[in-house]
Amino acid sequence: MSRFWHYSTTNPKYLRDILINFMGGGKDTTGTTLSWFILMLCRYPVVQEKLAEEINEATNMKGSTTISDFAANLKEEAVDTMHYLHAVLSETIRLYPAIPVNAKVCLKDDVFPDGFNVKKGDMVAYPPYAMGRMKFLWGDDAEEFRPERWLDENGSFKQESPFKFTAFQAGPRICIGKEFAYRNMKITAAVLMRFFEFKLSDDSKPVNYKTMLQLHIDGGLHVRAFRRIYRY
What we know:
The protein is an alpha+beta fold. Helices cover 44% and strands 11% of the residues. The protein has helices at residues 2-7, 12-43, 45-59, 67-72, 76-80, 83-95, 128-131, 135-138, 178-195; strands at 102-105, 110-111, 117-118, 123-126, 196-200, 209-210, 216-217, 223-227. A hairpin with a 5-residue loop joins strand 6 (209-210) and strand 7 (216-217). The chain is globular, with a radius of gyration of 20 Å.
């Protein structure tokens, strides 16, 4: 906010709206996604260990580095090489999109590509949560958590069409904060995974979502964090 205020002569109301956009559209959605991400790490310990190995290799900061030193010296170049981390986050978002249902209001009469007519003022909603589980879009294993679906034969991250992976919308209304959100999540995840191992506090307790505007975990996610031990 201070940067906008310093460099902009825009009226305070507009700046307030920008701040609300960042807080509501950026902070909460990112936090929600990271909660589901940690749940996936707990449920799939092999994925968690593979991620820790990738982060350790990408950063190449061995020894007794402190958390603050690691975070301060985490380079963008290193983050960009974390293809498996990008894949795990994308697979988490596919199954648990922060906004499970998105709605739009028609500004004028229109016709969908399949011939369906919509009128001015109609509300049209699409469900990224359901679309991420559709077999005709993602294959017979659509309901499985498989980060490898996002990697090519060389292990590099491969983008999917935003009209298939709709969590960030598509076309002219695609989320302008998409890359910013990925960057925030990758940095946070890298710091957490470099130093901690996560396990559910109670493996027998079901984890469900709470029906809200965002896909929150009902009752929060209760985990135990253990200091990760490296043997070089």
